[in-house]
Amino acid sequence: MPRLMLLLAEIIAFAILALVASSHFGLSEGLKITLSYLVAYVVPRIVLERSYGNSTTANVILFLLMSLLMFIGVSNLLEWTSVEGYSLEMPNLKADARGYYKWALHNYDGRVPANEVAFPGFPFMMIGIWRLLGVSVVWPLAMNTMFTLLSVVLTGLTTRRLLLHRTSFSSTTLVSSGMLLTCLLCFYLIMGISILKEASVFLSVALVGYALSSMSTIDEERHYLWRDIALFVLACLLLAMVRTTYLYIILIGVIVMAIPHWRRDWGVALAMVAIIVVSLFVGDHYAAYSFDRHAEIVGGGWNMQRFFLKRGTQQPYQDVMDFYFLYSPFHKFLMLPLTMSLQFILPLPWMMPGDDSTIANHVCRITYGWYLIGGIALFYYLFMSWRRSENMGAWAWWPGLVFIAMAYVIAGTANRYLLPVEPLFVPVVLFVLDRLREGRWRKTFKRWVIFFVILTVVALLVGLEVDREVFSKAFHFPSLRDYLHR
């Protein structure tokens, strides 16, 4: 009965989508939108249906998430075509999305001029779809929606793989809980359904996470290791095209996961490192970011200073960070508490990009889901990770080390680059929740929750004052921004 009701709800949802889309864009375009979203939903639905740990609860979570993303997606399509002269074929996109779309159109039929893009993989995918289905923004939007849904499903499956033999949760509970926690990452979801390369990066990291989780499972689950290697190859080649620099994040994961059982996993780890090296050379051939640029990103310099600490919207951060990218490595290391705090708290919930106040931008600024996941994960690192009996293994150190490395490299001012890593904290969170359910750590956790909530609220209030000068204007005292700017 529950599955029958779910099927009925799915039929009703897509019927409503067809009616709404047809009423705004015409019957032909409305059917294209409906069919594209139907494919975007059916593919992850089939993956989930054929996986261990599938349940009605997990399917309901996937359906509700798809319904939300469809609503936001159609709202975006209406926004992109609301100005006269713009259409589904030539939408009114902004910022990076406009650059990717124009580059793809320019290389497809030359109808518009375009600047070069650093990573051409995502526009190449758009061109490939257009050759099959015709030019429309609907196809890349649906593709990114499918990639985002697949990333959520894979996070649930990875959670089951990692924790089935480490916790008392059932297989179905782990999958559905992993998916549900990932759904709390609103910024992650909204960036995933934008006309950007983020969805491809999300899927790649999720595939790698699922493949690497086999190194932490019991031997009975390693019979199909060749499948994990195949997924790993696919993910690395996709990253080589869409965001080469994330291959270094994958390299960190391979090293961390191989250390505990290096006698058993050294062969697999070496094969994965070789795949990463080949992918880096592929990316170096196609992407504008060469190996020299990779070294500059890590080392800093004036280019990084200009790009990541701009005047205007980032003036408050520049006042705090000063000439961060020109500092010595040791100086940057000493600033890690500050840069990690910035990276954790950004983007501030009230900050909208420019004057853009669309539904998608309002939703993506709901960052409290990340605060919840990050806060529980931080409890694990501070209190549980160093206890042998309470340690979940090497996995937790992969996203933790990446978090530290990103804060060091980009000064914590671009949380968008951390988004692909955020779901990797979900298994850590569920590991903590399992221990709390068993009655352990409850008193310490209650104290931590109080401390963490107070600390987060204070950080947000300080951010509000630095960004908007709210309290200094209300109570007529010198602003914190002026103090920092001295």
Task: Explain how this protein is built.
The chain is an all-alpha fold and 486 residues long. The protein has one domain. It is 71% helix and 0% strand. It has helices spanning 2-25, 27-49, 56-80, 95-109, 121-133, 138-163, 171-183, 186-192, 198-212, 225-242, 247-258, 262-286, 291-299, 302-308, 315-321, 329-334, 336-345, 359-364, 368-384, 397-410, 426-437, 442-468, 470-475, 480-485. Helix 2 (27-49) packs antiparallel against helix 3 (56-80) and helix 6 packs across helix 21 (426-437). The longest helix is centred in the C-terminal third of the chain and has 27 residues, at 442-468. It is globular and about 60 Å long. The termini are far apart.
